[in-house]
Amino acid sequence: MTVESTAARKPRRSAGTKSTAGKRTTAKNAPGTDPELVQLLTPEGERLKNAEYDKYVAGITPDELRGLYRDMVLTRRFDAEATSLQRQGELGLWASLLGQEAAQIGSGRATREDDYVFPTYREHGVAWCRGVDPTNLLGMFRGVNNGGWDPGSNNFHLYTIVIGSQTLHATGYAMGVAKDGADSAVIAYFGDGASSQGDVAESFTFSAVYNAPVVFFCQNNQWAISEPTEKQTRVPLYQRAQGYGFPGVRVDGNDVLACLAVTRWALERARSGEGPTLVEAYTYRMGAHTTSDDPTKYRADEEREAWEAKDPILRLRRYLEAANHADEGFFAELEAESEALGRRVREAVRAMPDPDRFAIFENAYADGHALVDEERAQFAAYQASFADEGGH
Ligand SMILES: Cc1ncc(C[n+]2csc(CCOP(=O)(O)OP(=O)(O)O)c2C)c(N)n1
Ligand SMILES: [Mg+2]
């Protein structure tokens, strides 16, 4: 076990920008700043022994370790491409997962094919693990569809923007799984900000009393847009579980091996009828909340720099190299694969057909509605006002 440094969490003046001092209200030794953390790989790439969780990754092969590395690198490459596409005007918005690759790949690779995943809007790495083609994630962000994939094909639900609501969906689904007598598990992703939502509290209560086979996977990336975690809780988030009557654990969210081990443990609990678990993956959102956000307005550069030293990809690379599990050829091939993925994503986005402009009015009510008819007519009139420009 190691202890997180509190140094990164003190507001400091950020060089060259407006002072961010005073924008965070972190009390000295505030509860939750240095709780115990499950860590199997240090930022330097050293493997730590852990009596409780080692057995969940004991049999992992060099090939599987390289696989986790590949997953993280390709996910980061995809994410960077999507951010660029938004900057080029090809996407309306993008929510980057930069920095959260280990939390998502570790937990995503712990799931079994028959498990069911309820994501937020940032789980691009989990989608990757579930086999959802990354290009399918982009339609909604381009505004050409409302989701872009069939949730039933990969047991990966559509992205959910209404903060925390998917934890209720996951709980209900898990209660159904239990009633069916299946040994599948359900995992719900949510953020530190979402932990303040009533929906999450209700999910915890229901899943506990019904012993639902669900894992609540909270990526505590330290921020909910511009609100720091200190504004969400006075205790470490994982400790909330205790009050509901199920276990909670904090894992180093930048350590893919620890995330894999802890999530395997939690999913196994769910499968064997032991009920819900809360996993708090302690990580950091390296980028902006979305492409519409400017984090320099509310957080200090030093904070990001401190987390850069704990980069999830770098630490696995260090481990792979020190253990002689990967050579230059592997890294070079992966670089080429990343570039090819970036190209494929770019081309796929640019080729996405525009939707029928009137389709938006079709699926709100099964039998139509007077208000929808009125809005459709207004929209048609608006469109017609461009008639001299070819109706566009
Ligand atoms: C019910 C609801 N309230 C507010 C919002 C606006 N909103 C979008 S993202 C966000 C912050 C979420 O933070 P967190 O749960 O920590 O997730 P993160 O974005 O950091 O991954 C908020 C308040 C929303 N989408 N839904
Ligand atoms: Mg957050």
From TrEMBL:
Pfam families from the entry? E1_dh
Q: Where is this region: Disordered?
A: 1-36
Recorded hits in InterPro entries, A to Z, give: Alpha-ketoacid_DH_E1_comp (IPR050771), DH_E1 (IPR001017), PdhA/BkdA (IPR017596), THDP-binding (IPR029061)
Query: According to the lineage, what is the superkingdom?
Result: Bacteria
Coiled coil region boundaries: none
Keyword annotations for this protein?
Oxidoreductase, Pyruvate, Thiamine pyrophosphate
Does the record's keyword annotation contain Hydrolase? Answer: no
Residues forming the Dehydrogenase E1 component domain are: 70-350
Required cofactor(s): thiamine diphosphate
Under what name is this protein listed? Pyruvate dehydrogenase (Acetyl-transferring) E1 component subunit alpha
The organism that produces this protein has a lineage beginning with:
Bacteria, Bacillati, Actinomycetota, Actinomycetes, Kitasatosporales
